[in-house]
Amino acid sequence: MRIAIRLFVVAVIAAYGAVPVANSQVQGKATTYTSPNGVEERCVAIAPIPGGTYSEQDSDEEGRLCAINLYASSVAMCPKTWSTSPGTLIYDISSGDFANDPARFERDACPKGGSAIKEATRELAKHKQSVNTVESSATLSTASLLYYHLSRYFDTTVNVPVSVYRSIDKDAHLRRVTEPGVRFTSGKSSLKMIHAGWLALRSGEKNPESYSPTDELFTADRRSIYGILILTSGKRYNSEFNGTRESGWGSGQNRDFQNTAPYLALRSEKPLSDAIREGLAEARMNPKLNRDMGPNISDAQMVFWMKELTEIVLLDFIFSQQDRIGNIDYKREWYWVENGAIRSRQAGGKTPPGDLEGRNPILLKRSWINDNDAGGRTTYTDFAEKTEMLEKIRHLNADIYHKLLALDRDFGAAGPLYQYFRDTFGLSQRQLGLIVRHTAHATAILRETCRAGQIRFDLEPETFLVEGTTKEREVACETQ
């Protein structure tokens, strides 16, 4: 009851007046650039989260993203002209017909939209900034940074891409990207929402104070917009993981999401193998799900999916994500066991490479959440919370549970993790409070389920690959 009252008060406060949001005062390793207009720009690899597990590839990718000089002759920028939210596509044009001629690329190739990549050497990154107006899609750039670093704290199985903070001279961006974005999306009903976003950016870049709250989009000197650099990849799941979405946007599609095979298995109180069979059988009763699932889904695939889903739901719950459904991607990877250890490799097709012959490799879809920008803002609707996604989970990874309880304890004691979130991301006090409250609420839900003896701590995908089964771990619900 106390949790419900507290959350109601938070909702009432958020519903009235301007809501304080993140600003550009982030902390980490900074690289600076100067635009042709003399404006200093910053790229910041955000400081690592205490206790986080980062790979060498994470560090390399942060360095690569912050090494991009937007004003180099080999770099071109195009406006994003599809979907619902504006962004900047950054291309390497060091070779090809437009080699080292960004002005000509931006004039002749950018109007081709997504096909502009065919004229470039490669895509270097996307720049995504915040845009939140009545007419536009909801986007908060800081959310991508939050997801990246908290996923490393939880050491998630689900993949969350590296992102870094990046500011850009607003006048340079207005001329090279925003004005073309407005033109390219004008007069097309299917692009109404993204066009509204480009219009909001144009108005703001001409007069920063016209965008409210100004700190959400502009640096303190009002000479630059800021956002994140990220390079995403993967293919979008169909309904087998994203849900059918047959009940429409909002709560309906979030409940559809909970009727996929892996989510149904998570909701089963039966042992893991029985839960998998039950989830698959029930999901196949829906013709669309059955078609998109295909004829064969291995138990190993289901265990990976189940663990990834618990992590997605937990992150979304904590950050009040309102636009997850339909936005989960995957990459195929080969997995095999070698000398008792798991090995993996990105798959180029559905046929095993010749050098894996005799190793009995298994092809798995590994999940990626690339689109995380509709979280971290107190005005967003937390659909994971609203549709009680955590309450329905009956299978969990023990280490994730321990990490969650430790995070909640730290927040309660204003410990190192609390100080990290307070000082690192440029969050407002209200945003920090949202993260702290939602972490406490998530912890309370899963602790109560644990106390009721309704959680099986058995989601160990790699152990399952090696042994073909997992043993349920005994966990003290009040673990310290």
Sequence-ordered SSE layout with sheet pairings:
Blueprint: H1 2-14, E1 28-34, E2 40-46, H2 56-66, E3 75-79, E4 88-92, H3 102-108, E5 122-129, H4 142-154, E6 163-169, H5 170-185, H6 192-206, E7 224-230, E8 235-236, H7 239-242, H8 251-257, H9 261-267, H10 272-283, H11 287-293, H12 299-319, E9 329-338, E10 341-346, E11 362-368, H13 383-386, E12 395-396, H14 398-412, H15 416-424, H16 429-451, E13 456-457, H17 461-467
Parallel strand pairs: 12-13
Antiparallel strand pairs: 1-2, 2-6, 3-4, 4-5, 5-7, 6-7, 8-9, 9-10, 9-11
Helix pairs in contact: 5-6, 9-10, 9-12, 12-16, 12-17, 14-15, 14-16
Verbal overview:
- By secondary structure, the protein is α+β, with helices and mostly antiparallel strands.
- It has two domains: 23-230, no CATH class; 235-467.
- Helices cover 40% and strands 16% of the residues.
- It has 17 helices and 13 strands.
- The strands form three sheets. Strands 1-2-6-7-5-4-3 form a seven-stranded antiparallel beta sheet, sandwiched between helices. Strands 8, 9, 10 and 11 form a four-stranded antiparallel beta sheet that branches. Strands 12-13 form a two-stranded parallel sheet.
- Helix 9 crosses helix 10 (272-283).
- It starts with a helix and ends in a 13-residue tail after the last helix.
- The model is unreliable at 1-17 (pLDDT under 50).
Task: Summarize the entry for a quick read.
This protein has 480 residues and is α+β, with helices and mostly antiparallel strands. The chain has 17 helices and 13 strands.
Kindly list the characteristics that best describe this protein:
480 residues; alpha+beta; seven-stranded antiparallel sheet; four-stranded antiparallel sheet; 13 strands
